[in-house]
Fold this protein.
Amino acid sequence: MTRAKIIGTGSYVPERVLSNLDLEKMVDTSDEWIKSRSGISERRIAGENQSTSDLCVEAAKKALEMANMNADDIDLLMVATVTPDFRLPSVSCVVQDKLGLINAASMDIVAACAGFIHSLSIAQAYIANSMYHRIMIIGAEELSSITNYKDRNTCVLFGDGAGAAIVTASDDDSGILSTYLKSDGRLSKLLYIPAGGVAQPYTHNGSGPTHDDYFLSMNGNEIYKHAVRSMGNAAERVIKSAGLESSDIDWLVPHQANIRIIQATAKRIGLPMEKVFINLEKYGNTSAASIPLALDEAVRSGVIKKNDNIVSAAFGGGLTWGAVLFRW
Ligand code: ACO
């Protein structure tokens, strides 16, 4: 089977930094609590006139440059996000316009923090079937737009950013070796936004949802337990189905939600923390952007080398989870 291969990466984070010390002034929390429970020191917040599509464009331009491709080379664009510019049109169509991807089809992938893993898996299937040949994948979020900065349970965790990857058919033994995706909609209310959709629409007379209903609502403890189980399980599955052992894995590039979840995942697959790429302390949880943001940093800093076997695993609202194993 033809393997899909990442040949270019790019990322972008907004300039504004929101530190733990800033958050101490906004809610009843402390730098010590946030660092010890999550591993996060600061996160980035998009500017007032910066929308998710703008973050996408910056990351995508860098990925195109690394892949040595032009905008009109791309035949499919997937943007993984839960914070699109509009409910209609898709943010991928907005990004297509801004980048001039005149030869592409465009679609949004809504799988929360597992969105980039879902997109990579879809790209693998399309490349294997020769339906699309030069695919751009972007994970991008402005989680600040759906975060309640009066709720200390959530506002300390999330940040804004974007990461992109260009995927084509591999002509050697590098590329995606195995993928695994899963969801459990029974757990959807553990992490969700109650209002703004059709279930609780906006009403003119004020009889509808309250202001807080438009922000993320999360049961942190339950999500935590599920994340530890699901990310470890997904990572184990992709290693096994690729016919590899833990000792064959050079890097785990996980979804950056919480250092304790990442440590538990590494332990489950028997990987020492020196082989885990972490940039969570700088950006917090950027949902669909988190893995491509980390991957781009790892690639550009020279940490990831040719022929390295890399596992990426993620979980998110839905609940959704999954993993991809690829050889660089
Ligand atoms: N500062 C200080 N105290 C806090 C804060 C805060 N920011 N937030 C909660 N607390 C309090 C709680 O109220 C609780 O107090 P109580 O015991 O008096 O009730 C206490 O701290 C302990 O709370 P726990 O929830 O038990 O803390 P825990 O160790 O589980 O850590 C955390 C909380 C960091 C949220 C953890 O559960 C976690 O990371 N969960 C996963 C969350 C996640 O990754 N969500 C993203 C999903 S991905 C997506 O799709 C976007």
Q: What stands out?
A: The first strand starts at residue 4 and ends at 12.
